[in-house]
C-alpha cells in the first residue's frame, strides 16, 4: 500500500493552479445521463472519485471520452441503462446516490446500491427519499439497494428539514424532467449546487434560484446537450493550499479560484492573522507574523465548510493558545484527532466539540488517513512538523486531490510517494531507495 512521506519544516512559496471541483464534477456527471445529446465538460479533475464515476456511467452504457487529465470529457448516453451501477463501483463513492434522480426522471427506473465513501458519519438518505417521493417516484430499499420507479414525475413543493447538498441536487435534477413546477424550500446554497443548476440550464432545463434557499424548477419534456461547460474550481482544494501556506508560514498565490466561494475560510484565516489578498480569480496568502487561536463552527454554506475543518484543526494545533472547533455536519469528523496526537498535538474531544491547545511544534510520525480531508490535514501537519511524516491510506487523499504531491513540490515541499518502508527522497525530489543514496 502506498504511503505519502512529507519532510516538514519548509515554507511553501510560489503559485499553484487549482483544479476543477470534485463535488461539482460528480453531480454534473450524474446530470449528464439526462442529456439527450453530446455533453462536453471541461475542468473535470482526473481524481479517483471522478474515475470511479466515469466507470459507473460506462457500466450504464454511456460513451465517455477524456482527452487529457485536465482537458475535456465527452459524454453521450442515448439508450436506457444497459445495467444498473454494480455494487463494487457504487460502494466506492458517496456521490453514486446522485444517479437516483436523473435515472428515475429520464428512464423511469433506478437501482443504486447504498453508497459508500468516507466514514464521516451516518449519512442517511431520508431527505432524498422525501423529495423524490413528493415528485411521484416510488422508493424502496431492497437488499441494500435503493430502488426507484416512476411512470412519470410531477412537480411538487418540497421542504428540506436540513439543507442537504445531495438531497437538493437529486431533487433538482429529477424535477427538471417532471411535469409542472417544483419548489425546493430550505435548499442547500453551496456553490456546487449553483454549478449543477447552471449546467442543467445549459442542457435546456429551467432552474431558478440556485444559490438561495428556494429553488424553483419548471419541468421540460427532455434535455439536450451542451457544447462546452467548464466546472467551477475546487474551493476545498484551494482552501487546503491556503491553510498549508499559512501553516508553513509561507507565501502562495492560488490561481483559477473564485474568491467569493472561499469567503467563510478567508474570514477565519484573517481572524487568525493570515494576510490574504483577493483578485478576480487569484488569491495571495501570506503568513509572516504570529498567528492567533480562533473558534470555528461548521455550517451549511455560506457557513464554514465541514470539508475544511480537519485541515484547519492541523493549522490550529500549532497556534499558541486555545482554539475551539464545533463540528455540526458529520459526527465522525474528529477521527483525525488521534492521528494528530501521534504528532504531538494537544486536542480534547467532547462529542461534537474539539478543544485545541496550540503546541510549539509537531513532530513527524507514522499516521493514517481516516478519510479524505483527514488525509489532507495530515499532509498539512506533516508540512509543518519536525522530521518525516509517513501517511498511510493514501487512497483516501487520491479520491479528491489532483496531483497533490506535484503541486506541493512546485511550492518547494519535500513530499513523495512510496510503497516501501525504506524509500527516501533523492536530492532532486524524486523517490529512490535509501540504500542507493
Ligand atoms: C459528493 C458531495 O457533494 N459531497 C459533499 C456533500 O455531501 P452530502 O450531500 O452527503 O452532504 P449533505 O449536505 O447531504 O449532508 C449534510 C447533513 O445532512 C444530513 N442528511 C443528509 C441527507 C439526508 O437525506 N438526511 C440527512 O439527515 C447528513 O447526515 C449530514 O449531517 O455535502 C457535504 C456537506 O457540505 C460535504 O461534506 C461533502 O463533501
Ligand atoms: C466528504 C467528502 O466527500 P464525499 O461526500 O464524497 O464523501 C469530502 O469531499 O470531504
From TrEMBL:
Residue numbers carrying 2-(S-cysteinyl)pyruvic acid O-phosphothioketal: 118
Family named by the database record: Belongs to the EPSP synthase family. MurA subfamily.
Enzyme class: transferase
Pfam families recorded: EPSP_synthase
Recorded coiled-coil stretches: none
Pathway connected to this protein: Cell wall biogenesis; peptidoglycan biosynthesis
One example GO MF annotation: UDP-N-acetylglucosamine 1-carboxyvinyltransferase activity
Catalysed reactions, semicolon-separated: phosphoenolpyruvate + UDP-N-acetyl-alpha-D-glucosamine = UDP-N-acetyl-3-O-(1-carboxyvinyl)-alpha-D-glucosamine + phosphate
Enolpyruvate transferase domain boundaries: 9-408
Positions of UDP-N-acetyl-alpha-D-glucosamine binding: 94, 123-127, 307, 329
Keyword vocabulary terms for this entry: Cell cycle, Cell division, Cell shape, Cell wall biogenesis/degradation, Cytoplasm, Peptidoglycan synthesis, Pyruvate, Transferase
InterPro entries: Enolpyruvate_Tfrase_dom, Enolpyruvate_Tfrase_sf, MurA_subfamily, RNA3'P_cycl/enolpyr_Trfase_a/b, UDP_GlcNAc_COvinyl_MurA
Function (record text): Cell wall formation. Adds enolpyruvyl to UDP-N-acetylglucosamine.
Protein localization: Cytoplasm
Residues at the catalytic site: 118 (proton donor)
NCBIfam families: murA, PRK09369.1, PRK12830.1
Protein name, entry field: UDP-N-acetylglucosamine 1-carboxyvinyltransferase
One record GO biological process: peptidoglycan biosynthetic process
Protein's gene: murA
A GO cellular-component term linked to this record: cytoplasm
Amino acid at each position: 500500500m502506498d504511503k505519502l512521506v512529507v519532510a516538514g519544516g519548509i515554507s511553501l512559496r510560489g503559485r499553484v493552479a487549482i483544479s476543477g471541483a470534485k463535488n461539482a464534477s460528480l453531480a454534473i456527471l450524474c446530470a449528464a445521463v439526462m442529456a439527450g445529446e453530446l455533453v462536453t465538460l471541461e475542468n473535470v479533475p482526473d481524481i479517483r472519485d471522478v474515475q470511479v464515476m466515469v466507470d459507473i456511467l460506462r457500466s450504464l452504457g454511456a460513451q465517455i471520452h477524456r482527452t487529457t487529465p485536465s482537458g475535456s470529457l465527452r459524454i453521450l448516453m442515448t439508450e436506457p441503462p444497459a445495467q444498473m451501477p454494480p455494487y463494487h463501483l457504487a460502494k466506492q463513492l458517496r456521490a453514486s446516490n446522485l444517479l437516483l434522480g436523473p435515472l428515475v426522471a429520464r428512464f423511469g427506473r433506478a437501482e443504486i446500491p447504498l453508497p459508500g465513501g468516507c466514514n464521516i458519519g451516518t449519512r442517511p438518505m431520508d431527505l432524498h427519499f422525501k423529495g423524490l417521493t413528493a415528485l411521484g417516484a416510488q422508493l424502496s430499499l431492497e437488499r441494500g439497494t435503493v430502488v426507484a420507479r416512476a411512470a412519470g414525475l410531477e412537480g411538487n413543493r418540497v421542504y428540506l428539514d436540513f439543507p442537504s447538498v445531495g438531497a437538493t441536487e437529486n431533487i433538482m435534477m429529477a424535477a427538471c424532467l417532471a411535469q409542472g413546477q417544483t419548489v425546493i424550500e430550505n435548499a442547500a446554497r453551496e456553490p456546487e449546487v449553483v454549478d449543477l443548476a447552471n449546467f442543467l440550464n445549459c442542457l435546456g432545463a429551467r432552474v431558478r434560484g440556485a444559490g438561495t434557499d428556494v429553488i424553483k424548477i419548471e419541468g421540460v419534456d427532455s434535455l439536450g446537450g451542451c457544447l462546452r461547460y467548464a466546472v467551477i474550481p475546487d474551493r476545498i482544494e484551494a482552501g487546503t493550499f491556503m491553510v498549508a501556506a499559512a501553516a508553513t508560514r509561507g507565501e502562495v498565490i492560488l490561481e483559477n479560484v473564485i474568491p467569493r466561494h472561499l469567503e467563510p475560510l478567508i474570514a477565519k484565516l484573517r481572524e487568525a492573522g493570515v494576510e490574504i489578498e483577493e483578485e478576480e480569480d487569484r488569491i495571495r496568502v501570506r503568513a509572516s507574523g504570529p498567528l492567533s487561536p480562533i473558534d470555528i463552527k461548521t455550517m451549511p454554506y455560506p457557513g464554514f465548510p465541514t470539508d475544511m475543518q480537519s485541515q484547519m484543526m492541523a493549522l490550529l494545533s500549532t497556534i499558541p493558545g486555545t482554539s475551539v472547533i464545533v463540528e455540526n455536519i458529520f459526527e465522525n469528523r474528529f477521527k483525525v484527532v488521534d492521528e494528530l496526537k501521534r504528532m504531538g498535538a494537544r486536542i480534547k474531544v467532547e462529542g461534537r466539540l474539539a478543544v485545541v491547545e496550540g503546541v510549539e511544534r509537531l513532530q513527524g510520525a507514522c499516521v493514517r488517513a481516516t478519510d479524505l480531508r483527514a488525509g489532507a490535514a495530515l499532509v498539512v501537519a506533516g508540512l509543518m512538523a519536525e522530521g518525516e511524516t509517513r501517511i498511510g491510506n493514501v487512497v483516501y487523499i487520491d479520491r479528491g486531490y489532483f496531483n497533490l504531491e506535484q503541486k506541493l513540490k512546485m511550492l518547494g515541499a519535500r513530499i513523495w510517494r512510496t510503497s516501501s518502508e525504506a524509500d527516501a527522497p533523492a536530492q532532486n525530489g524524486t523517490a529512490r531507495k535509501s540504500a542507493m543514496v
